[in-house]
Amino acid sequence: MSSRCRDRLELQVAAAHLHQPSGPKEHDESSMHIATEALSQGKHIHHVVPGEPEEPTSTIVLTSAHRFYVDIRVLKDHPSEADIGSGSQSYLSNPIQWAFAGTSESVCDSNGKCFSTWHHWIDSQTDDPARDRGEMSTQDDGDVLENGITLNPETGMEELYEELWTDLPLTPGSSSGPARICVVLRVEEVETGMRGMVVRVGRWCQGILKKDGAVSLERWQWVEDIENSRDGTWDVTVRVGADELPCKHILDVEKSVEGTKIDCGAFSWEVVEVSTW
């Protein structure tokens, strides 16, 4: 799900990570697949059933250097991101088509075919998600076509699908601190099954928390004020659910130190990754 279509973006920095059921495991050099830094925009999604490719959501996937990712898909028939701005409003009445987070990995075989797998450590639709795997094929114009099998959120069934992606240039974050920074936070309570993950890549940050079946999530974006020649600002473009997420705590790059804890609401989140590029 590199992210799925027209308004979808995927921000990605190099590297790899494996998955274990209780949560992401430590980096394994022997299984590393290196990817170039990329900001990809989806052009279409099509589940292989009658119908034309379309995009009913605004979806952003943020992927870290160690392959932690957060994927949030907001239905377009709710207030636009431009209308929300500065956290003044929230999306209302179940606007999320799908949201999930975990780790991903990519490999290429001897024939040059490349495959990516996304492990859903958190999933808004189920507590027992299936594996999501697709073949990635570069097209003559540089776009990437993804084919595979995944859950169709409209039918609740696993189906064949295709998605088309195009790479866009990465944009730096705020003017203070490193222009390009990646930060990952993680929280888990094994006894209750509560899990949460936040990923910031450059000028984007988003997170998801699932507790007792209820999902809370946020998406933040750094918006430049070019017209007035001013520094930009962080805007909350999506906020759903009752629980607070610690996104705002990692927008200040000086406070992001790997191995430290960040208290937010009732939970203490661990900074599991900080990198710059």
What's the short story on this structure?
The protein has 277 residues and is mostly beta strands. The protein has one helix at residues 81-84, and strands at 9-12, 19-20, 23-24, 38-47, 57-63, 68-75, 96-108, 114-123, 132-138, 144-152, 157-168, 181-189, 194-201, 204-211, 214-225, 230-240, 261-264, 267-276.
The shape is globular
Mean pLDDT: 74
In which range does the helix fraction lie?
Answer: under 10%
Rg over C-alpha atoms, rounded to the nearest angstrom: 18 Å
How would you characterize the overall build of this protein?
The chain is an all-beta fold and 277 residues long. Helix content is 1%, strand content 53%. It has a nine-stranded mixed barrel with strand order 1-4-11-10-9-8-7-6-5. It has a seven-stranded antiparallel β-sheet with strand order 16-15-14-13-12-18-17. Strands 2-3 form a two-stranded antiparallel ribbon. β9 (132-138) and β10 (144-152) form a beta hairpin.
